[in-house]
C-alpha cells in the first residue's frame, strides 16, 4: 500500500492520523479512507506514474488526453466548470453542502484518470474494466455495493440538418390526402439518385459511441469515449432552466434525462430511414428493369443495425424499472422512455417488412416477365411446328417425292402453311390462350 514506517513511533503517528474519531482503534471505514488517500497520493505522484508504463504512456500521449467538466446543482442554484484545469484539487474536493447532485463528465478514455476516479469514488474493478474496453460492451446495467453502473451505446445523426429535412418529408408523406402527391412522388429519377447518395451508409448516423454512467448517492459520473458533445448541449439546456424537473430531483432523474436524450437521438434516424425506403420504392417503380436489388439488402442492414441497438437499451431500462434505486415519479418517466424505444423498434420492423415486400414484389415481377416470355415463345413454336414438320418431310433425300415435281408446289406449300397457322391461331383464340 505504500506505507513505510521505520519505527513504532512513526507507525503510531500514522495510526493517530487515520483514527479520525480518536477512539484508539481503526474502524473499517477509517481503514478504507486511509487506503483511498494513499492510492490517490500515488496516482498524483509523478515518480509513481513514471514507474508504471501504462500510466506513463497515458500521460505522454496526446491522443489519450481527457477533458473533465462538472455541474453541481440544486433547485435554486447551479455551478458549471468546463474544463476543470485543477484536476487534483477537484478530485480531492467534496460536493458543496448546497448542491444536491454533482455531475462529473469525462470526455475521452484515459487509464490514469479512470483509476483516479475509481479510487476517489470507490468504483468496482469490473465496472472500470468495462469503461476501459469500450469496443466490446453491450448495453447493460449492474448494481454494485457502492454504486450502480450503466453501459450505453449512443448513436447520433451524422448531419442533423439533412436528417431533420428527411424526417419532416417522411412525416408529411404519412399524412397526405389520397388526391395529393407526397414529396417523394414528384421526384425524378435523377433527383432520387442524388438524394439517395446523401443517405448512403455512414451518412445518416454515427458509429455507436460508448457512454458509461456510474451512479451514486448525490454523484453521477459519465464517461464518453470521444469528445463529441452531441448529447450534452441538450442536457445542459435542461439543467440551466431553474424550474426544470432535473433540478428538483436526485441523480436517478438525471440518469433518466440522459436516457431520454439518447433515445430522442434515434427518432430522426428511424424516420430518415423511412424516407429513404420511400425513395427506393419510388426509384424501383420508375426503372424496375435496371433497378439494383442489392441496394435494398444494404439498406436492410442499416435498419437492423438500429434495431439491434434499441433492444439492449430497452432491456437496460427494464432493469432500471425493477430496481429499488428508481422509484416514484422517475419510474413513470423511465416507462415513457421504454415505450419510445418499443415504438422505434416497431418502426424498424415495419421498415424491414416493407423491404421484404419490395424484394418479393421485384422477384415476382421478374418471374412474371420470364413467364410471359416463355409463354410467347411456346405459342410461336406451336404455330410454326407444322412448318417444321413439312420442311423435314420434303427435305428428305429420297430419289422420288411426287410433290417436288409439281409446277406450283412451292406456292401450294406456302398456302398450306398459312392455312394451318391460321387454324392454330384460331384454336388458341377459342381456348382464350391469346
From TrEMBL:
<keyword id="KW-0813">Transport</keyword>
<keyword id="KW-0812">Transmembrane</keyword>
<keyword id="KW-0406">Ion transport</keyword>
<dbReference type="GO" id="GO:0050897">
    <property type="term" value="F:cobalt ion binding"/>
</dbReference>
<dbReference type="GO" id="GO:0015087">
    <property type="term" value="F:cobalt ion transmembrane transporter activity"/>
</dbReference>
<feature type="transmembrane region" description="Helical">
    <location>
        <begin position="410"/>
        <end position="428"/>
    </location>
</feature>
<keyword id="KW-1133">Transmembrane helix</keyword>
<keyword id="KW-0460">Magnesium</keyword>
<keyword id="KW-0472">Membrane</keyword>
<dbReference type="InterPro" id="IPR002048">
    <property type="entry name" value="EF_hand_dom"/>
</dbReference>
<dbReference type="InterPro" id="IPR002523">
    <property type="entry name" value="MgTranspt_CorA/ZnTranspt_ZntB"/>
</dbReference>
<protein>
    <recommendedName>
        <fullName>EF-hand domain-containing protein</fullName>
    </recommendedName>
</protein>
<dbReference type="GO" id="GO:0005886">
    <property type="term" value="C:plasma membrane"/>
</dbReference>
<feature type="domain" description="EF-hand">
    <location>
        <begin position="6"/>
        <end position="41"/>
    </location>
</feature>
<dbReference type="GO" id="GO:0005509">
    <property type="term" value="F:calcium ion binding"/>
</dbReference>
<dbReference type="GO" id="GO:0015095">
    <property type="term" value="F:magnesium ion transmembrane transporter activity"/>
</dbReference>
<feature type="transmembrane region" description="Helical">
    <location>
        <begin position="373"/>
        <end position="390"/>
    </location>
</feature>
<comment type="similarity">
    <text>Belongs to the CorA metal ion transporter (MIT) (TC 1.A.35) family.</text>
</comment>
<dbReference type="InterPro" id="IPR018247">
    <property type="entry name" value="EF_Hand_1_Ca_BS"/>
</dbReference>
<dbReference type="Pfam" id="PF01544">
    <property type="entry name" value="CorA"/>
</dbReference>
<dbReference type="GO" id="GO:0000287">
    <property type="term" value="F:magnesium ion binding"/>
</dbReference>
<keyword id="KW-1003">Cell membrane</keyword>
<comment type="function">
    <text>Mediates influx of magnesium ions. Alternates between open and closed states. Activated by low cytoplasmic Mg(2+) levels. Inactive when cytoplasmic Mg(2+) levels are high.</text>
</comment>
Amino acid at each position: 500500500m505504500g506505507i513505510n514506517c521505520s519505527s513504532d513511533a512513526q507507525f503510531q503517528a500514522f495510526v493517530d492520523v487515520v483514527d479520525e474519531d480518536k477512539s484508539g482503534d481503526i474502524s473499517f471505514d477509517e481503514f478504507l479512507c486511509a487506503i483511498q488517500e494513499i492510492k490517490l497520493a500515488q496516482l498524483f505522484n509523478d515518480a509513481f506514474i513514471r514507474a508504471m508504463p501504462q500510466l506513463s504512456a497515458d500521460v505522454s500521449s496526446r491522443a489519450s488526453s481527457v477533458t473533465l467538466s462538472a455541474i453541481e446543482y440544486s433547485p435554486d442554484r447551479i455551478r458549471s466548470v468546463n474544463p476543470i484545469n485543477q484536476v487534483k484539487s477537484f478530485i480531492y474536493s467534496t460536493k458543496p453542502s448546497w448542491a444536491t447532485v454533482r455531475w462529473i463528465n469525462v470526455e475521452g478514455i484515459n487509464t490514469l484518470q479512470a483509476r483516479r476516479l475509481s479510487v476517489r469514488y470507490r468504483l468496482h474493478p469490473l465496472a472500470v474494466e468495462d469503461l476501459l474496453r469500450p469496443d466490446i460492451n453491450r448495453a447493460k446495467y449492474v448494481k454494485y455495493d457502492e454504486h450502480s453502473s450503466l453501459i450505453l451505446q449512443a448513436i447520433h445523426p451524422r448531419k442533423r440538418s439533412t436528417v431533420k429535412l428527411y424526417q419532416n418529408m417522411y412525416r408529411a408523406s404519412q399524412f397526405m390526402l389520397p388526391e395529393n402527391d407526397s414529396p417523394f412522388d414528384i421526384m425524378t429519377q435523377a433527383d432520387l439518385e442524388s438524394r439517395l447518395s446523401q443517405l448512403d451508409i455512414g451518412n445518416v448516423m454515427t458509429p455507436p459511441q460508448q457512454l458509461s454512467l456510474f451512479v451514486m448517492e448525490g454523484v453521477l459520473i459519465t464517461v464518453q469515449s470521444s469528445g463529441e458533445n452531441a448529447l450534452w448541449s441538450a442536457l445542459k439546456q435542461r439543467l440551466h432552466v431553474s424550474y426544470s424537473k432535473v433540478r428538483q430531483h436526485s441523480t436517478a432523474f438525471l440518469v433518466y434525462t440522459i436516457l431520454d436524450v439518447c433515445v430522442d437521438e434515434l427518432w430522426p434516424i428511424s424516420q430518415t430511414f423511412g424516407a429513404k425506403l420511400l425513395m427506393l420504392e419510388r426509384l424501383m417503380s420508375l426503372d424496375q428493369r435496371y433497378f439494383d436489388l442489392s441496394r435494398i439488402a444494404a439498406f436492410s442492414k442499416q435498419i437492423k443495425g438500429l434495431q439491434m441497438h434499441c433492444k439492449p437499451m430497452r432491456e437496460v431500462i427494464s432493469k432500471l424499472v425493477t430496481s429499488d434505486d428508481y422509484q416514484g415519479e422517475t419510474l413513470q418517466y423511465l416507462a415513457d422512455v421504454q415505450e419510445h424505444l418499443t415504438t422505434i423498434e416497431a418502426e424498424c420492423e415495419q421498415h424491414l417488412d416493407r423491404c421484404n415486400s419490395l424484394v418479393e414484389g421485384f422477384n415476382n415481377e421478374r418471374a412474371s416477365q420470364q413467364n410471359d416470355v416463355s409463354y410467347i415463345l411456346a405459342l410461336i413454336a406451336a404455330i410454326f411446328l407444322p412448318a417444321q414438320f413439312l420442311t423435314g418431310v420434303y427435305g428428305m433425300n429420297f430419289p422420288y417425292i411426287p410433290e417436288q415435281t409439281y409446277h406450283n408446289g412451292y406456292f401450294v406449300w406456302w398456302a398450306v402453311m398459312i392455312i394451318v397457322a391460321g387454324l392454330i391461331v384460331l384454336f388458341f383464340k377459342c381456348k382464350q390462350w391469346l
